[in-house]
Amino acid sequence: MMDIDRDRDREQRAYERESKRYKAERMKEGTLSPSVMPKLAAPGGHPPPTVGPGLAPLQSQPGYSMPPGPAGPPSQPLGSNAMDTSAQSPAARTAGVFLDELDPAVMPPELKKEGPDYWAVFNPNTKRVIDVDIVHTFPHASVVCCVQFSADGKYLATGCNRTAQIFDLKTGNKTCVLADESANQAGDLYIRSVCFSPDGRYLATGAEDKLIRIWDIAKKRIRHVFDGHQQEIYSLVFSQNGKVIVSGSGDKTARIWDLVDNANNKVLAINEPESLTTDAGVTSVAMSPDGRLVAAGSLDTVVRIWDVASGQLLERLRGHRDSVYSVRFTPDGRGLISGSLDKTLKYWDITPVTGASKRREMIHCTMSFAGHKDYVLSVAVSPDGQWVVSGSKDRSVTFWDSRTATMQCMLQGHKNSVISIDLNQTAQMLATGSGDSQARVWSYTPYNGP
């Protein structure tokens, strides 16, 4: 026991030294220095692009990389159907100052919270209304690429190299490990996306080998395999009725898979003329609450919306200045949140395509959330629609007021990029997956004062 305590104390002191050095460098330079964050490089052995690349192989896991970004800034101007408010928004300006200038060491107690291996700061320019706390830390053997809660809120699934894992949130115990022993054992095989079926019986996994596997959780066996994508799969989502699963891949397509009738499968392809010369791989997919729409974020900076029934492309949302890595519908189905390598999130009013009117109207970006110091890699929306939450390569998780785009809280608890986040649908809990080989579960609760 003494050896365990001594090792824990040594690890804690090392983390505190790293945390202090990171804070000092961030305050001194106003940005993340190369000594803190890894160098950038595109996968496949190619030299790193000069602007807008995807995540580099992370320091702890040389074999892991995120999708590459475009080789340069987008050539097209902001689309006429997009309103970029980041330059004008007082909330966005406040958020930027907040991130740059707040030092936890000198902040009053009511505006900060420090745990044994995490800290949070709260915006002094707005009323503090939430508190955050660590609930579970789940170590993994590799980078945690994805996290998702079950619909009943009782379990968390994670994806890493070769395995998907399921944890009981009440006990903190690992209840299931899913690994395809028939897969090629040479090299890495990262699970990029995990998704519970609505009834909790199945887990879908999408991986680098271009296959979607549907697992029977109780039997720990593969029930079905969907094969059709030409490149690796980055994102999966079940429909709320559990009959359909949507996937997004680096092959410039999203696909709709019917779990009952394969004849209803659809390919939602990005085939505009400019996509022939631009990497338009799909990094993220989302399905509207009513199941009528699919949204996809792409490396070419565009968010696209398709009609599920017809497979018709309805809208292209232009406004981001770099690859879009994450998209989520709001719970009421009236809005769409996107997160980008341009370090911002955007809120799109999509009522023109959700309303009963047949008249075509423009979809606008009505809010831009600015304040992250590096790529926004994942976004989520709370079940009540109050909070937009984002995870970033700057290692932070940020809570934003969904009505004003004002930052409420910035949480630092990982030692590397926050690659994936998810919000529990039945409890006030947040899950994070990181390049530091940890998945963490946090609580966010109403703040009642010191």
Description:
This protein is mostly beta strands and 450 residues long. It has a domain at 86-144 and 375-450: Methylamine Dehydrogenase, Chain H (7 Propeller), CATH 2.130.10.10. Helix content is 10%, strand content 39%. It has helices at 2-29, 90-101, 351-354, and strands at 112-114, 119-122, 130-139, 146-149, 155-159, 164-168, 174-178, 191-196, 202-207, 211-216, 221-227, 233-238, 244-249, 253-258, 266-269, 282-287, 293-298, 303-307, 313-317, 324-329, 335-340, 344-349, 364-370, 376-381, 387-392, 396-401, 407-412, 418-423, 429-434, 438-446. Strands 1-2-27-26-25-24 form a six-stranded antiparallel sheet, with helices on one face. It has a four-stranded antiparallel sheet with strand order 3-30-29-28, with no helix packed on it. The longest helix is centred in the first third of the chain and has 28 residues, at 2-29. It is globular. Belongs to the WD repeat TUP1 family. It comes from Schizophyllum amplum. Pfam families: WD40.
- What is the overall number of helices? 3
Broad shape: globular
CATH topology category name of the domain at 86-144 and 375-450: Methylamine Dehydrogenase, Chain H
Helix/strand/pairing class, anyone?
Answer: mainly beta
Low-confidence stretches: 1-5, 18-62, 69-100
Radius of gyration: 21 Å
Instruction: Please identify, by name, the CATH architecture of the domain at 86-144 and 375-450.
Output: 7 Propeller
Q: Tell me the name of the CATH homologous superfamily of the domain at 86-144 and 375-450.
A: YVTN repeat-like/Quinoprotein amine dehydrogenase
- Tally of DSSP β-strands: 30
Strand order of the largest sheet: 1-2-27-26-25-24
Distance between the termini: 35 Å
Strand content: 35-45%
CATH C-level category of the domain at 86-144 and 375-450: Mainly Beta
Helicity range? under 10%
Largest sheet report: 6 strands, antiparallel
Overall mean pLDDT stands at 82
Family: Belongs to the WD repeat TUP1 family.
Keywords: Nucleus, Repeat, Repressor, Transcription, Transcription regulation, WD repeat
Biased composition (Pro residues): 65-76
Biased composition (Basic and acidic residues): 1-29
